[in-house]
Amino acid sequence: MLRISHMQTFTIGRSGDQPFDIAQTLTKVHGEHARIDIDDNGKWRISDLKTPREGTGVYVRNAEGDYKRVRSCEIQPTDFIRLGPQGPHSYTFMAHRVLNSKEAPNSFAYELRYMKHLHGKLKAQEDEREALNLKHSKIAKWAPLAGFALSFLIPGGTQIGMIAIRLAIMAPGLVVGQLFFKDPQKLKAIRQLRQKLVVCPNCGRPLSDYDVANLRCSACRAM
After folding, report:
1. What integer is the mean pLDDT of 13-37?
2. CA 75, CA 59: separation in Å to the nearest integer?
3. What pTM value is reported for the model?
4. SS3 for 11?
5. Nearest 5°: CA angle at 42, between 48 and 35?
6. Are strands 80-83 and 58-61 parallel, antiparallel or unpaired?
7. Which strands, in side-by-side order, build the sheet including 34-38?
8. In 10 A of CB 33, how many CB atoms?
9. Which tens digits make up the pLDDT trace of 107-131?
10. How far apart are CA 170 and CA 33, in angstroms?
11. How would you classify residue 212: left for phi > 0, otherwise alpha for psi between -120 and 50, otherwise beta?
12. Of 50, 84, 169, 195, which cross-links 90 as Cys (Cβ 3.0–4.6 Å)?
C-alpha cells in the first residue's frame, strides 16, 4: 500500500513562505535563509540554505540561553532560532511560529504560554534553592559553635593546650560552613538563567512576573 507523506516544509527568510513577515530592512537575513522540515513522525529539523562562506548563519538557542551556529540539526518546536549574527539586523523567532495560521501570523500566544511554563519550572527551582540555602545557612552558623561546645567535654589539660584542641574541633565546622556559604551562587545562577530564557518572543526583553501572568509583553505589547 502506497504511503502518503505529510511532511511539512517551510522556507524562512525575507522572501520565504513562512506565515509571518520578516522586514526587508533586516539585511543580515537572506531572502531564503533557512528551511524547517517537519516529518511524518513529528520530528523537526532546521537547515541553513547558505554555505558558511556566503551566509550569515543559522543559530539555535541551547538550554543555557546561548545561541550556537548550526548547519543542519534536529530541533524542538519550542527552540529559539536566530537568522544572522547577533545584532539589530538579524531575526529571532520560536520554531513553532511556522505553524501560525495565516489569519493570525503575528500571534505569540503559543510562545507566551511556553514562557509561562518555563517561568514556573525555573521559579520552582529557585524556591527550592532558597529553602535549601536557608537550611544551609543554619548549618554554616551552628556547625562551628557545636564543635566549640563539644570541646568542653574533653577533660583537663593546660589552658593553651585546650585552646588548641578547641580550635582543632571547630575547624571541620568552619570548613563545612564555608562550603555551604557558596550556595547563594547557585541561586544567582538560576535567576540569571531565568533572565536569559524567559524572554519576549518578539522583542527579546526579559519578561517580568506580571508579563508572564498576563501572557503579554508590557514593552512591545506582543500577545
Report:
1. 97
2. 11
3. 0.79
4. strand
5. 15
6. antiparallel
7. 8-12, 34-38, 44-48, 72-75
8. 27
9. 999 999 999 999 999 999 999 888 8
10. 64
11. alpha
12. 84
